[in-house]
Write a structure and sequence with these properties.
This protein is of the alpha+beta class. Helix content is 14%, strand content 35%. It has 3 helices and 11 strands; from the N terminus they run βαββββαβαβββββ.
């Protein structure tokens, strides 16, 4: 449950980070939802080879933590700290917990589906126009030359007046 949709006309509530007790994720989630709080815990599918077979399991992106959304003016954070399964809300010093920056939460929501499962970025193909977002070539705009089977993206960059083929990780590219 990710809170109210943006079209409801109400401002979105801030999200806070909650540390949960060991092996208590489901208990904490259930008890927070019973308090009518939105809970978010992004997960990703992980495939491992075990005893000669491949098995796909879900694992939490932030093990031991989840996000919850509430109105800080109503002050339920002390109640959340005493919720069964919750260790504590993450705060700094003796002050009340601070919200997670909205940009971080927006980026997480953009990558997740309705079941809080992180979706892989859309596959790039040869000919796509991209911008490099990280590394020494950040902000370069180029075209995808080739995509290798090991997920490396090969682009041609104009370096010192010469076209140079460079491999870049897909997460460091943004499709334009």
């Amino acid at each position: 449950m990710k809170g109210l949709p943006a079209h409801c006309g109400l401002p979105p509530l801030p999200w806070f980070l909650v540390q949960i007790k060991p092996n208590s994720f489901q208990i904490a989630r259930r008890n927070l939802e019973r308090q009518k709080l939105s809970v978010f815990s992004p997960q990703q599918a992980e495939t491992r080879r075990t005893a000669g077979h491949f098995k796909t399991t879900l694992r939490h992106l932030f093990p031991g933590y989840l996000f919850t959304s509430f109105d800080p003016e109503s002050g339920p954070w002390r109640t959340i700290n005493h919720t069964y399964g919750v260790s504590r809300m993450v705060s700094f010093g003796t002050q009340a917990p601070r919200p997670v920056p909205s940009g971080i939460m927006s980026a997480l929501f953009a990558r997740c589906d309705d079941a809080d499962l992180i979706q892989p970025p859309a596959a790039l193909i040869a000919g796509d126009q991209v911008q490099v977002t990280a590394g020494p070539f950040a902000d370069f705009v180029t075209t995808v030359e080739n995509v290798s089977p090991d997920r490396r993206i090969w682009v041609l960059l104009d370096i010192l007046g010469r076209a140079t083929k460079v491999a870049i990780e897909p997460e460091d590219l943004k499709r334009l």
